[in-house]
Every structure is written in C-alpha cells, then in structure tokens.
Design goal:
single chain, about 350 residues, alpha/beta, Cytidine Deaminase, domain 2, Dihydrofolate Reductase, subunit A, 2 domains, nine-stranded mixed β-sheet, five-stranded mixed β-sheet
Length: about 350
C-alpha cells in the first residue's frame, strides 16, 4: 500500500476533478502491474495496472489507494474491470465519499466473490485524497498557503522589493509544490507588484497548474506576463460583481476565465473564492499570498496546510508583513497549526504545518 500511495502522488496536480489514485497488482509475492491516474483524470489507476498485469491479474491482489469506482462515466467502472480481470482480493484504505460510489464499489466486488480489505494506511490515504474529499463534501478544494518571509515575518521592503528574499533551493521547492497542486492562487496586489508567471519552471510537468488571481476590481496590468500567456496556460480571475464591464470584456478577450465572486467586508470573500474554484473542479490550490489574502484565508479557517520558508534576514517594522491584519485580541483566538516537518533549503528553512488533527 505504501508503494501504491507513492504512485498515486505522481498524479497530484494533474488529475482534477478526479482523485490521484495509485494501484499495484501483486501475484505470488511479485508485482505484476502498477499504475496511477493519468493527466486529466483518465485512464484510472486500476485500468493502467491491470493492463500491465494482463493474465497475471487472475487470482492476484490489487492494492488501490481509494475505493474503485462503481459508476459508468467516460469509462466503465473500475470495480467491473477488477472483477473481469479475475482479481481475488482488493485492499483499499478508504471508501470514496462521492455519492455515485460511496460503498457501491466495495459491495460490487464482494457480490462477485472478491475479498475486500479496508483500513490499511487509512490516515495516509486520507491526507493524499483530502482535496478530493473536501470538494465532494464541502464544495471547496484543499488549500495550501505558502509564505516566504524574513526572520521578522516580512515579505518585502518598505518600497515593495521582494525578489528574492529566499534562495534558489527554496524557490525550487516552491516550484515542486506548485506541480502537486491543481492551481496557484495569488491576490491582486501580488500580481500587480511582482508581475508573476505562476508557472512550474525547472521541472517537467504534463500540464501547468491553473493560474488564479483574486482581484475585486480587475485592476490588473493588461500587458503583464499573466495577460500575455492567458491563451497558453489557463488564467482564472475571481472578481467582484462591481468590476468595470470594460475590464471584464478585455480580460475575456485576452483569454482569461472570469469568476464573479461575492464580497465580505468590502473584499472578495475567501470562502466564496474557494467555493468558486471547487465548482470548477479544483481539488488542490496553492496560495502564494499576498498578506491580505493570506489573512482572509486564515481568519476564515480555510488553510489546510502551511509552508513557511524563512530567510536569515530582517527588514524591520517598515517592511510589508507576510500576513495582514487578523483582528486577534487574545491568544486563544489565534489560528494554530501542528508542526509536521522542518527542512533545510540551502540557506533557508522550510516549516510545514497542518490543520490540527482535532479539527
């Protein structure tokens, strides 16, 4: 199952709206087939592994990182494929929460004489599929927030200079994180100040993540790198319903997808942004700031994982803070996360935090 989970992770960022599943077929103690969900969500992991196994699948055990599907979509059900291949046993950690599947895949396997074992490495599988479950059950994607800051929590000097606070090793790690997410999200202020491309560079990916910018007024440079590449890499703009119609038209003509989003307190509502992205099928979103967007996500308890890259420099109180105002008066009100890992990234440090397990 550990190997199947590792295979499934190869599809992260590439398979939405489908989950990134891994599958290994074992016969007589030997791996005879392996597969993972392919870019775009098809073929599914099970069909890939069974195709490799061929006749060796008969009487074998299939380790699958999520309950095999039981519904007819663009492809036949994976549960049927496993039955037809003659697999004797299916080991899967979790049931699929999609109401089209949710237990039906396991039931179909059992009804056809296939032994089903569940619960193996369930917590690890739950973490890997968290974005898929969140979209199905809550209508929003898994949200990873990344902050690259100085020792005193600043992301730019008083004049706005921010490139580069962290070094090359940390920036390479950020590109690797982008590659495992369906989309990269930034606020309008970051898009205006940094003219980012928001693409994965230095790594080979089957498809680039969607670039998402949250900008109430759509007051973004029409000659920016994002605008110039809107027809090459998907660009989605979350904006207020009060955005100027001529700007809406201009961005549509450039090739961007426009997502009208409700406001809260005069700003785009963070929960509504994620809901809009979930409706589009996204399961994993990687937010790279800025400070106000980070604060909005934290204030509404929407951050599932936090990656903080800390550089060994200080900019002082006049620098731009990595997180905007949260309105916290008491320590008990402050967002808290559980530390998962600490890694050296060249001369910088990467801290990885997750939503408390009790949540």
């Amino acid at each position: 199952m550990t190997q199947a989970l590792a295979l499934g992770r190869r599809g992260m960022g590439q398979t939405w709206p489908n989950p990134a599943v891994g599958c290994i077929v074992v016969a007589d103690g030997r791996v005879v087939g392996r597969g993972w969900t392919q870019p775009g969500g098809r073929p599914h992991a099970e069909s890939q592994a069974l195709a490799m196994a061929g006749d060796a699948a008969r009487g074998a055990t299939a380790y699958v990182t999520l309950e095999p599907c039981a519904h007819h979509g663009k492809t036949p059900p994976c549960s049927d494929a496993l039955i037809n291949a003659g697999v004797a046993r299916v080991v899967a950690p979790l049931a699929d929460s999609d109401p089209r599947v949710s237990g039906k895949g396991f039931d179909r396997l059992r009804e056809n004489g296939v032994e089903v074992i569940t619960g193996i490495l369930a917590s690890e599988a739950m973490q890997d599929h968290a974005g898929f479950f969140l979209r199905v059950e809550q209508g929003r994607p898994f949200l990873t927030l990344k902050l690259a800051m100085t020792l005193d929590g600043r992301i730019a000097t008083a004049t706005g200079e921010s490139q580069w606070i962290t070094g090359a090793s940390a920036r390479h790690a950020v590109h690797a994180l982008r590659a495992t997410h369906d989309a990269v999200l930034v606020g309008g202020g970051t898009a205006r100040a940094d003219n980012p491309r928001l693409t994965v560079r230095g790594l080979s990916v089957a498809k680039q993540p969607v670039r998402v910018v949250a900008s109430r007024h759509l007051d973004l440079p029409l000659l920016s790198d994002l605008a110039r590449t809107a027809t090459e890499v998907p660009l989605w703009l979350c904006h207020g319903t009060d955005a100027r119609s001529d700007l809406v038209t201009a961005w549509k003509q450039i090739g961007a997808t426009l997502l009208p989003t409700p406001l809260s307190g005069g700003r785009l509502d963070a929960a509504a942004i994620l809901s809009a992205l979930g409706q589009q099928g996204l399961t994993r979103v990687f937010c790279e700031g800025g400070g106000q967007l980070a604060a909005s996500l934290l204030a509404q308890d929407l951050v599932d994982e936090l990656h903080v890259f800390t550089a060994g420099m200080a900019l002082g109180a006049e620098g731009h803070p990595g997180i905007g105002a949260l309105g916290v008066d008491r320590l008990a009100e402050a967002p808290r996360f559980e530390l998962v890992d600490v890694r050296a990234r060249g001369g910088d440090i990467q801290h990885i935090w997750r939503r408390p397990s009790s949540a």
